[in-house]
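Reviewers of the previous submission asked for a worked example of the structure-prediction workflow described in the proposal, so we include one complete record here. The input consisted solely of the amino acid sequence. No template or homolog information was supplied to the procedure at any stage.
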Amino acid sequence: MQTTGKLGDPLLARRIAAVTDLELKPAAAATQESTAQAFTRSAHTARSTAVHPGAMSWHELNSPDPARSARFLASILGDEVIADHRSTTLMCGGLHVAGAKPSEPGRAASWTSFVRVPNVDVLCDIALACGGSVRIDPTGILGLDRRAVIADPTGAALTIIAGGDDRRTIGAGAIGWDELRSDEPAESVRFWCAVFGWSAAPIVGARETNGVVFLNGGRAVASMQRADERERHSRWLPVATVRGDLFDAAVHRAIRNGARIGVAPRTHGVLGKHAVLVDPSGLEIALGAEPLVQFAAA
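From that input alone, the workflow returned the following structure tokens.
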């Protein structure tokens, strides 16, 4: 386990300087207006999109019964499950949506979310210097599949990978969004913006939940909301997205199939509607209406 960073690294020095200056301030009315004008409507279909460094690239569910959890998620999204003796994959229209793997014995069902980065080792040093932790040290081949697991001071973790997938599937029927549910929003925003070089824009109308959108070079990559008091801990959740007019039906179908409500359905500044369900194996499944809007690139 790493405990110190290489403070002589110039990228690390720049990121550390940035984190000391980062503050969350209410957006001015003019800024909010210009941001709203930068939104564009997305098509309501699953589609492949390029993954740039600093963006989510892949998701894997970890469950005591991965095939069952995959089928459960597929029943909500209308996807198919492809399984063999080596792997289980959710597919939508021939496009890869997510993988499914057995969880470690004694570990609760969870998600692994991957972020594509240029240098895993440097990002681990930055994470440590910014008050986070490296849960799994870098492994793999440089330039091919090197990866590590880092976590912010609240415990929310992401897997960073250099190489790997350079495209992901988004849209209705896919894992079309990602959200951080944090019990210390300001600390989480400060950390992830420093580590990835993201910026954070307040979500209009989400002041009570400290809602922000994370921007990677001007492109929206994820959002954050303050976790409810009954939520166990801070964590990143992939969001399974459906057409907005089918959101309520998807929630009802999940409940009929044995899901329980983790976070009740509510309006969402990016997704329109959002809820967190828990499948029969204990896996949390965040469900949202497909983003109707997206930030234009800066």
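Residues 10-289 form a domain with the 2,3-Dihydroxybiphenyl 1,2-Dioxygenase; domain 1 fold (CATH 3.10.180.10). We consider this example representative of the routine output the project will generate in years two and three.
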